[in-house]
Amino acid sequence: MLRLIAFLIFAALPAQAEEIVLGLSRDEVAITANFDGSDILIFGAIKREAPAPETGDLGVIVTVAGPDHPVTVRRKDRRLGIWVNTDAVEVDAAPSFYAVATNGPLREVLSDTEDLRHHITIPRAIRSVGAEVADSRAFTQALIRIRAGNDLYQVLEGEVDLEEETLFRAAVQLPANLTEGDYAARIFLTRNGEIVDEYVTAIPVHKVGLERWLYNLARNNAVVYGLMSLAIAIAAGWGASALFGLLRR
Q: Residue 8 domain-assigned?
């Protein structure tokens, strides 16, 4: 009897009006010795059980986030002619990389309430609690400014192509200085700033080849890595000295 009641309740619920069907240009990103960045094309379609609503503009938001790490942000002031660290704020978790792309102005496709709930914009994706400095928000803004200057934080308004409110695509450029780990790609559909559907997937980013071997050696056997680095430095110095000796003859 309970199963029948649950089935009738579920059947009475309205079907999802709009649903995301997603595709990726690549399932993973490999960091090699000559890695200088990569582009990820995120594309998909909007599946509907009924015609699109006639009211309310459709918004598409794409975010790509790298692994979260705690960060210490310090402020420097000039004291007695010397620049010294004065205040510091511990950011509990900040994504190592974060890009948010939209098909229109962010303030029009996403309401502040939905942003607060899903942590979509860059300031909301950074978690900083318990700061004892009065203007701790300035430290978060400084972190965003620094990482934006290194292409690690990107706001790509209007970079999502939406065709006939059905097909969409967005290209996100990953810089060369990536942090290894799983990158979360999230896609949101909005109507009048309210989220109507969400899709989440992961993009593994890992070192391969020589880069991976050196990385594992440095982490798992630091003594061998140090001796090998020392031997390479000695060999390079001896080789350079021998070469200059030949050139002087």
A: no
Cα(145)–Cα(152) distance, integer angstroms: 10
What phi and psi values does residue 161 have, to the nearest 5 degrees? -85, 125
Query: In this structure, what DSSP letter does residue 132 have?
Result: -
CA distance 233 to 229: 6
Grouping H, G, I as helix, E, B as strand and the rest as coil, residue 194 is strand
Tell me: pLDDT of 130 over 90.
no
Spatial distance between the Cα atoms of 102 and 80, rounded to a whole number of angstroms: 48
Question: Rounded distance, CA 148 to CA 175, Å?
Answer: 11
Round to whole Å and give the CA distance between 21 and 207.
29
pTM exceeds 0.85, yes or no: no
Nearest Cα residue to 162 out of 25, 52, 45, 51: 45
Dist CA 79 CA 86 (whole Å): 9
Same-domain status, 217 and 120 = no
Indicate whether 64 and 105 sit together in one domain: yes
Is the domain of 19 the same as that of 110? yes
pLDDT tens-place string over residues 205-242 = 876 555 555 555 555 666 665 666 677 777 777 767 76
Q: Is the pLDDT of residue 84 over 90?
A: no
